[in-house]
Amino acid sequence: MSTHTVTKESVPAQAPAVPSERRPAATGRRRSPAHVLLSKGVVNGVLLLAAFYMLMPVSWLLFAATKNHRDLFATGGFSFGDFNLFANIHDVLTFNDGIYLRWFGNSLLYSVVGSAASALLCTATGYAFDKYDFRGKEKLFGLVLGGVLVPATVIQLPMYLLASKVGVVNTYWAILLPALVNPFGVYLARVFSEGYVPNEVLEAARVDGAGELRTFRRISLPMLAPGFMTIFLFSFTGSWNNFFGALVMLNDDSLYPVNLGLFMWNTTTSQQPEFYSLVITGSLIAVIPLIIAFIGLQRFWRSGLTAGAVK
Fold first, then answer.
1. Which tens digit of pLDDT belongs to each residue from 109-120?
2. What pLDDT, on a 0 to 100 scale, did the predictor assign at position 30?
3. Cβ partners under 8 Å of residue 67, min gap 6
4. What pLDDT is stored for residue 2 in this prediction?
5. Which of 42, 112, 274, 305 qualifies as a FRET site for 27, CA 20 to 30 Å off?
6. Is-contact 219 202, C-beta < 8 A?
């Protein structure tokens, strides 16, 4: 019988055991810290450029509104002159017996009343498209979506002819009635209704004897509050910036919104340069309601971020 001597060199070396929690993952490569920092830097740089692009005109407007007529042309765009902001505001509000205040009030009327009615109509229509079944529903909804593709300027002339036919040209109704039509708001309301209003809740309300109008008013509409306020804000912004529609429909300067009134002042600056200060300061005042609306309505958007996440 032969004997084999086992030597230390004849035993194959074994790799030391590595704990499973310390083993590198078989799939996926960990991103290096430098790559992560580069990605964050690119994103932050793009956001800073976008913020600079959007804030620069407003910053120039703020600087210019603080200057008198001489400093407006004698100093740089982003430099201060003699502080004259309050005097400029006083001139704007008192010029021509306070016509600017009339324009500002008209804009609030067109934007607040028209947008609230439009948001309510769009919310109810989108809710009906979502929760009810009727013949030709999808075809009719496709027709509504087709309205999103039509530019507003294209339909201004037909709308003027219709308004002239019914005798509402050069009245408040000439601006308020077209503001009710908002195809994008109907689409947005249907999306919100699908995500925020469970069908089980509506069935429970019907079992308890609630009618359709009461169910919508007491149950569905509070659930759709984020969607309602979102549509209202879109409509408010569009109505406040509505220039071409007012230009076509209105001839009486007492009915002008603030943007059309400022445009009329701006057309006289070549003959009367002192109107430059009025136009600039009036434009700064006209921006304030939009800022207030965006800041004040943010809580409604935040309240709807988690809607539908928990069943």
1. 999 999 999 999
2. 60
3. 75, 80, 81, 82, 84, 277
4. 44
5. 42
6. yes
